[in-house]
């Protein structure tokens, strides 16, 4: 497919967040109905609303469908090794604190092979914004079980249903030391933009978990259509304030979304480090 | 005027890195390399650089590449088991052309092996460790003065070729104290190379378009206008993934060629009494120290022996080894492993001379008298 024959200025006039896209790399590799595009769009819109120019953004990813995002993002981008994105991002951010550094990752990438890096980046409270696409499955490798696959669901490696419990990503991040933790969905697109915006604004480790349908692999394995999957998010997620008011018995099966945790009191890692450097080196870096 | 200082091997490595311009270090503690990290933790903040102790070896290598992409000269140090863990991201660094220095202070292996005792068992892992085809320069100094020289040389080549460079030490070198002439490392005496910056305007900039020397100029991340993409996947000049067979082959050809073509410049050996030698010892690092004494002991007994101490062990000094094989009756390769570099010597000798081995992997060094005994055996025509 060739680039649409519309002048770039015209497109950006109507949709200013398009300036973050490498349009000549489109179309994306994502399947029809996939939620990654929504999360990517929300991220670009958030950056646009915050007025952060392309030259001030680094985007780092690991391996998986969602990790292909940086390829389409017109900034300083790194597509790294499986699960290791937070480590590359930590090095980059420490060396260039002025860059808004975003990690795009998936549930398998961040929580299985990359679990250790994920919790330690959170522990340090380094100013990374992690957009974690949680689609409950390994999509790129064809539908194997992931640490967030719901118990009982089917995957290519759980042909008799998943026996393992799910990771609660938000709880894990909060326990590890993340200072901004939010959950959105690919269905609630504008709300997602707001959550990512707040995450970028927050000085410290931010996690935005994005519940996102893997329509082709998870959907097919579990007999859900694209529409059913989006509808599922609409029906089964509840704004966190409303969720908190629900009696315990009505919470079963329902997922709170919104800002789940926000703490501005803890110091941010790169700032701590560079203050120490200034003290020891007697001046600039 | 010489300015002599007594230096600890691992500390010398750290100090030399600072001289070379290293301003980023990410590591994970492991014996016998930890003193490099400890020294860097002390020095880097004073020099306005970054030190971070990461959660594991894989993370340390990842952060090192991150620091490198940000434009800082970057380094990490480890030992056997840690080097194994780093292989994944070392391959990534090679593929995305992230200049960095990876120090491996070898101990006995495999597995956790002998943490506090020397080995030379990662010779082959340095070349073949990470999956896929690659060529990463490997330097192996033989004393503390040379640890400093080779550390600086490693940084220079890493930046010049935009590639990771491995610096191999062994426990003995890392933990020994020797006199170093610091005058040699005065700022007006040391040659420092920096990476090539793009000389085209941002709109013409392609982060993976190589120059005539096969090395692409890549601006540090954060340089306004010079945005770029890097991926461990096969990629084209824009850095974007591709599976086009021609582009993929061209990429790997170039990555290997850019190092291989510099072989004559990269080559560094020390010859000792080789002129009239009938038997040559080829070795490196700690073992070369014993070999040198063995040469003298053998000469006292009238056996004409010489030593080729290989300092750039990768890419191999193919022609030098081949010429050597043609000029001697036999070659002996002692190593603190079960026979690794000897395979390379055999390959390069191309049958011109028989190649003998002397191997050990029990954490003990090879002593001069043991090498001498082997030489006497070879001189008598035995094995």
TrEMBL record, chain A:
Keyword Oxidoreductase: yes
UniProt GO MF annotations: oxidoreductase activity, acting on the aldehyde or oxo group of donors, iron-sulfur protein as acceptor; thiamine pyrophosphate binding
InterPro entries named in the record: 2-oxoacid:Fd_oxidoreductase, THDP-binding, TPP_enzyme_TPP-bd
Keywords: Oxidoreductase
Domain Thiamine pyrophosphate enzyme TPP-binding positions: 63-210
Superkingdom to which the source organism belongs: Bacteria
Coiled coil: none
Pfam families: TPP_enzyme_C (PF02775)
Keyword presence, Oxidoreductase: yes
GO terms of biological process kind: cellular respiration; small molecule metabolic process
Name of the protein in question: 2-oxoglutarate ferredoxin oxidoreductase subunit beta
Organism: Thermovibrio guaymasensis
UniProtKB/TrEMBL annotation, chain B:
Superkingdom of source: Bacteria
SUPFAM superfamilies: Thiamin diphosphate-binding fold (THDP-binding), TK C-terminal domain-like
Pfam families associated with the record: PFOR_II, POR_N
Protein name, per record: 2-oxoglutarate ferredoxin oxidoreductase subunit alpha
Keyword Secreted: no
All residue ranges annotated as the Pyruvate:ferredoxin oxidoreductase core domain in the record: 277-371
GO molecular function annotations of the record: oxidoreductase activity
Chain ranges of the Pyruvate flavodoxin/ferredoxin oxidoreductase pyrimidine binding domain: 15-250
Keyword line: Oxidoreductase
The keyword Glycosyltransferase belongs to this UniProt entry's keyword annotation: no
InterPro entries: 2-oxoacid_oxidoreductase (IPR052368), PFOR_II (IPR033412), Pyrv_Fd/Flavodoxin_OxRdtase_N (IPR002880), THDP-binding (IPR029061), Transketo_C/PFOR_II (IPR009014)
Originating organism: Thermovibrio guaymasensis
CDD domains noted in UniProt: TPP_PYR_PFOR_IOR-alpha_like
